[in-house]
Amino acid sequence: MADLPDGRQSGPAAPGEAAAPAAQTARGGGWVLLPLTWCAWLLVWLIPSFLLGPRVAIVSAWLEAETAPAALAAAAVFFLVAIWPFWPALARSEAGRTPAVWWFRSALELVVLFALAVPFARVAWSVGGRGFDAGPLAAASAGVAATAMGLRVAAARMPATGRWIMALATLACAAPIIVHYAAAEALGAALPRVLEASPMVGLARLALEGWPADPWRVAVGVWAWPAAGIAVAAVSLLATCGRRADPGIR
Q1: Residues 81-98: pLDDT tens digits?
Q2: What is the H or E stretch that residue 2 is in?
Q3: In this structure, is the dihedral angle defined by the CA atoms of residues 126, 216, 145 and 167, taken in order, positive or negative?
Q4: What are the pLDDT digits (tens) for 137-177?
Q5: How far is CA 54 from CA 18, 20, 48, 57, 169, in A?
Q6: Which helix (H) or strand (E) segment is 188 a member of?
Q7: Is 3 strand, coil or helix?
Q8: Residues 127, 68: contact at Cβ < 8 Å?
Q9: Is the Cβ–Cβ distance between 239 and 158 less than 8 Å?
Q10: At 30, is the pLDDT very low, low, confident or very high (cuts 50, 70, 90)?
Q11: Residues β-bridged to residue 73
């Protein structure tokens, strides 16, 4: 209890009042930390081909300069699909936001992340000796954005299941690659279609190699993952219709 200037005594602070400064600090910290983490993430994935490859006697395929664009594309897809959609939960930055602010901020974050990736992409594509194909690259970027936004909506609408959705997104990215290389090492069998099931492969190859001729790759790399993201968002919106979600989107 403290005396106020008018002689009255102040009561104990309400929980919302005490939490407000902490929430504001978390929002500012999350906004600054996101682009820094994104740039550091992309840089780390470029280090093997840029720094390690020229200094080792026997260069593995993943250390060659030509693999720099593939490494960058795979890193970007994984971050945007398995990490960014759940960033509000990790940074505790979205509580109390109105629907319009939530949608605007989410779209703005994606625009900022794509813009920050442009210098990294130019360097990687230049070192790898590749040129930009605007159509497939734009389609891949739109597919990643649709998938990521769908997962973010689901995590926001159903925060109690956010960790499970994040685990499934990570598994969807990594499991096909693990199965492919495990089969290649243990059985000597190539499983290219299993590998394509990962968005890190399907969407990255669309960005790197252009429009696929194989109908399987068209279905998976161009349509499957964006459709999955939109479907997950739609299910979460229907499941929580009439209930207040964490960011307040309806």
Answers
A1: 999 999 876 655 444 567
A2: strand 2-3
A3: negative
A4: 899 999 999 999 999 999 988 988 889 999 999 999 999 98
A5: 55, 51, 9, 8, 34
A6: none
A7: strand
A8: yes
A9: yes
A10: low
A11: none
